[in-house]
Structures are given as structure tokens and as C-alpha cells.
Amino acid sequence: MNPEHVVEVAPIIVGAALALIHLVSLARYIAADRETRASIRQAFRIRRGWTRLAKMQGLSVTDRTPTLLASLTTKQGQTPQPRELTPTIKTAVDRYGVIVTTNTLPRVGLDEMQKAAPHLANAWRCARVSVTPLAPGRLRIRAVRSDPLTLPTTLRPSGQAPEDLGSWDLGVDEYAEAVALRMANIPGITVAGLPGYGKTSLINGLVCRMAPSDAMQFAVADGKVSTADEGDYADMVKRCFAFVGDDLAHANGLFKKLVELRRERSSNVRRLLGVANMWHVGPSAAWPLVVLIIDEAHTYFRDYKGSDAATKRLAALSAENARLVEDLVKKGRSVGIVVILATQKATGDAIPTFIRDVCPVGLSFAQKTAEAAVAALGEDIRNWPDANPINLQDPAYVGVASMVSQGRAGFTRVRMPYVADADAATVAANTARLTADPVELLSRMLPGPPLSKDATNVPAS
Ligand SMILES: Nc1ncnc2c1ncn2[C@@H]1O[C@H](COP(=O)(O)OP(=O)(O)OP(=O)(O)O)[C@@H](O)[C@H]1O
């Protein structure tokens, strides 16, 4: 091919390549859902208007030093023009909006971008824009068109065991970023919120996602019902090695059994797992992560007042229940026992403060008063008014909770996906064969006679 030929065919090749790129983009656009298509159009507008907008927002710098090329090409007697530089951008989309990646410039960095974020949100017609560092010299700008917290989502459990049992997917935050709950080395979680805002759904959803793993075992104490076939956990009960209702003595039996398990695990963890902390090797079928769910937790810790024999008995059981659960929360972490306590108001009368205050993770759905929000999330929530769960009192926020951010200051609001009861029931039924009593599992690993099992209301399979 001679040079003339190259000149002739080059535009055809470039044109064909461009047409192909446009065709692929068009096919992607057609295949996308309605919201993603809106995001694609928005990303196009952002790219097209960026240079102009960046200059108007002061996100540009003037470079007065001529480049080598400018020095060589400028005519004699003339001085090279200074260049106005703006950060370059790349965009990606999802159904919530656009993710812009950009570079920093001298004097245009994270602070400047964060200050400009509300103006970028206005210019891009977005509900929110956040700027976070991505790598040295690189930033990530997240622009969401509508508030992801008010867009209900649904999860259909895959039925597959998650790869990492130390991290539970919760949902998305106000920027539609995925939020995970770090479970490894967490001894206790409190879940609070007004009735009907999603506490039980959240727990059911978590159980559904973890149930396909044989390295997870669940026990439930539900203070709202008397028997396993009533209430919110009736479908999940097949996947629980123990279930108790509102009977304090039954709950006492279950908590005692788990404290005994905690003791046996603590004294044997080094010998059987070769480590002092189970999380160094992770949960397994033989040594599963034991999740104790205590729903309507106030039922079990109520302060009974009265001098008659029946009330005294209940008061003694209640006090002992609190002591036993305190043992699990304070000492269960390293041997793979985690307690989830759900109640409407996480005040000291519902969950004793000596238990509540050692639970490192707190989640709160809508709350009625500032005091209830503080009880659920700690004093610091007063410094973060945007995240305060008293602002979640709206039907649009059913399924939205505020939680202490793990690994950084402040709080994160999370929209949890809804798991339909029928899907939860299917997962429980399909994974029921994986249910095993962790006391028996430990017995099998130990020489000698089996460990004693306290009688609990274990559901019939
Ligand atoms: N993540 C969610 N997304 C959308 N809707 C939800 C979500 N979670 C719960 N809901 C709706 O709210 C209803 C009540 O939820 P749930 O039973 O979990 O509330 P709760 O806080 O446990 O109430 P209670 O304290 O009375 O037990 C559900 O039946 C469902 O219709």
C-alpha cells in the first residue's frame, strides 16, 4: 500500500470505527432500563458542558509558562498565549445517576471540588453531588438525580452462599453507594425504630442472604409471639437451631445454653482452631458463626416491680437474662457469636445500657424523639442533623435506617431492599437441611462425653 492509498482509506477506517463505537453505544442505550437511559443522557450533557461549567465554578487554573511546542510554534515577536486548564473527566452511569472521575490540578483539589458540589448539583439538576478522593491526584464525583433513600428496592435472594461471611450487604446510601455491615469481630448490633419501619424485615433479609451457608447458624428469641408458628419468623424458623417466644423461662434456657457454648468455645478455640480468635480462620460448618436474634428485646429485660412470688420470679429471670446476654456480647466476639437486639426504643429500660453500650454497631429506623435517637445511636447523632432518624418519620422512609459509619466519622443513611415473605420462606425451606445445633457440632470436635444441652423450644423440622 503506497502513501496515497493510506490517505485514501484512512478516513474510511476511522469513520467505520466511529460508526461501530456509536452503534455499540446505541445498543447499550436501547438495552438499558428507563432510569439508566436518563443517566446516559445526563452523562452526555455533563461531558458536553464540563469545560465551560468548570471555568465558571473556578475549577480551572491559568498556566502562563509556555509549553515547548508553543515556544517553537509562536511567531517571532509574539508571546505564547497562557493556557486555561480544567480537570479532565470520564463518566460512568447507573440507574441512580452519573459517576464522574477526574484529575486534580494545582489549586483545584478535593476541597475546591467539595465546595463546588452544591453548584454542580444545580447545574446537573441532581438531588445530591458528593466528591471523594479516589487515588492521589484523582477524585470521584457522585451525582444522583433522585434521592436513592426514597426509592424502594427489592431483593430476590440468589440462594447462593455469600463469599465473605464477615461482611453483610445492607443496601445503598444517599449516594446510591453500596453499604456493607462489617460482621467480623462484631459482638453485638442494636436495631431500633418505630413500629412498621422495617426492623424485622432487615433481620429477615440478612438471615435470607446468609442462610445458604453452612457456616451460619441462627437462634431467635421473638418477644412478640408465644410459639414458633406465629409472627414474623414463622417462615424462617426451619433455618434456626432454636426458637423461643415471649416466655422468659424459655428465653433463659436458650441464653444459658449459648453462654455455655461461649464458655466451651472460649476454652477450646486455641486447641481446635489453632488461633485465639475464630475470625482469623473464619466461620466453618464445624465452627459456624452463631447469630442470636433477640426481637422485641424489651420483653426479656423488663424491670418487673412487685412483691408477689410470680412477679419476683419474673424479675429474677429478667435480671438473669440481662446478665447472660451481657456475657455473650462482651465475650462472644472472638469465638464467633454475635447478638442482634431489636426493639422500638433503645432506651435503658428496653435494652440495659451495660449491653447496649458494648454493641459497636447501632442502626435506627425512624424515631419520634431526639432522646430516642440518642439512645439508639449515641450522643454524636446530635452533631449530624441530616442523618438523625427523627427525620425519617415519613412513609417514604420505611426501610431506611441511620447507622454509625464503620471506619469513618459520622453516620450513614441506608435504604435496605425489601425481601418478600414468600422469597424468605423459599430460602428457609431450601436451606433447612443446613440447620445444625452448634453445641452438638462442638461436641463432635471434642473428645469425651457430649456437652449438656439445655432444653429449648427447638422447632420441629
Ligand atoms: N426495606 C423495605 N422496603 C420497603 N418496604 C418495607 C421494607 N421493610 C419493611 N417494609 C414494609 O414495612 C412493613 C413493616 O416492616 P417490619 O415488620 O419489618 O417493621 P418493624 O419495624 O419490625 O415493626 P414492628 O416493630 O411492629 O415489628 C413490612 O410489612 C413491609 O410492607
From TrEMBL:
Listed InterPro entries: FtsK_dom, P-loop_NTPase
Annotated transmembrane regions: 12-31
Annotated residues for binding of ATP: 193-200
Family annotation (Gene3D superfamilies): P-loop containing nucleotide triphosphate hydrolases (3.40.50.300)
Keyword Transmembrane helix found: yes
PROSITE patterns according to UniProt: FTSK
Protein name from the UniProt record: FtsK domain-containing protein
Organism field: Wenjunlia tyrosinilytica
